[in-house]
Amino acid sequence: MLNCSDFVREYSDYRDGRVDPVRRAEMEAHLAGCSSCARYDRVVVAGVDELRSIPEIEPSWEFLPRLQHRIFHLEDGLSPWRRSERSAMSPAFVLLLVLLIGAAAWVPTLRRQAALVELAPVAAVAPAPEPDVHTLFREGPLLESRPVLLPLDSPSTPLTPTVFFRYTRLGSNVVYRTASVSPR
Amino acid sequence: MGKPTIARTFGSEPEKRHSELQDLDDSALAAAFLDGNKRAFTELADRYHTRLLNFVYRTTGDRERSEDLVQETFIRVYRHLHRFDQSKKFSTWVYTIASNLAKNELRNRSRNPLILFQTITRGWDSDERPLEWEDHTYRPDDLFRKRHLRSMVETAVGELPEHHRTVFVLREMEGKTYEEIAEITGCNLGTVKSRLNRARNSFAVLIEPLLA
Predict the structure, then answer these.
(1) Domain limits at A32?
(2) Which of A114, A118, A165, B211 would give a disulfide with A179, using CB separation of 3.0 to 4.6 Å?
(3) Do B130 and A86 touch (CB under 8 A)?
(4) What's the topology of domain B1-113?
(5) What's the CA gap between B202 and B159, in Å, rounded?
(6) Whether B46 contacts B7, CB under 8 Å
């Protein structure tokens, strides 16, 4: 049996014709026998009718010219981007733009070369002179590096130069790979 | 002299083109506009500007601001019509835009509580209502009572919470279906039903003493 709470809870569905015929019949039966719910229904119907009878407001006379003016300036101010958005060329234009931006971003990376780090030489007392000059520049894996100071006396060099060179040790052999000379 | 229409205001193309556009439905007009026919937009604006103005006015209660918001609605329609899904109803889309703008307006207003709905609607009858011929078969006290009732009914709508008011106006004044209201407000169907029932209940409570 439908009570007043049920009626009020389902009132919107009833008013908008969204209840099935059986439920509708039940609600109408309740409405016929319940003065409170009947009054509720009357108040809603009369209130909405009154609301609908209020004349609509009309837009002011300047509404349409103002809209026209705004749209005119909107068209005027449309950027090439916005214009192209509506054109058939837009996907190609966007793709080209993306490619250009991508290429520009990659250029510095592509031009970059491996960084060269040059360590400051360290002067040290040279070990005993090497007997064989050919040994000095023999190739071999670099296992150890140690700058050495080698005084050279030469008639063409008034100053005693300092030779810095690194050597490697391979097993019991000492292999020299690089050398640099600077005046002392 | 007829009501000034946006189609008459915009451009100077032959009237025949305008009458042809009048025969098209909203979706066809939207398609025509996207094909480059600018007058199709003017026809759409012509169809909806009064309806939207009344909807936004009933939601916000501010006449001048409502015009601004409806202007903004059409600007957005103009700019974004290419995004409109033409398989859907244009009216639902345009009401969604207007409803969102009205909601933002009310949110901004709530942050600045100096303006109240009642303040806006006060004195509205005499100054801004369109001229209306009164029924002389009514006695003066009936006329007063009727005016008072209209005013109170409007105030009652204004006193509903915003999310209830929007649903109530869309259903009772704009005749939208529950499904359309759900789409416009971004709520599910159950929420629409619940809000509408509560809105009707609150509305009945507010106006019940007046209808005794």
Answers:
(1) 4-53
(2) A165
(3) no
(4) Rna Polymerase Sigma Factor; Chain: A (1.10.1740)
(5) 9
(6) yes
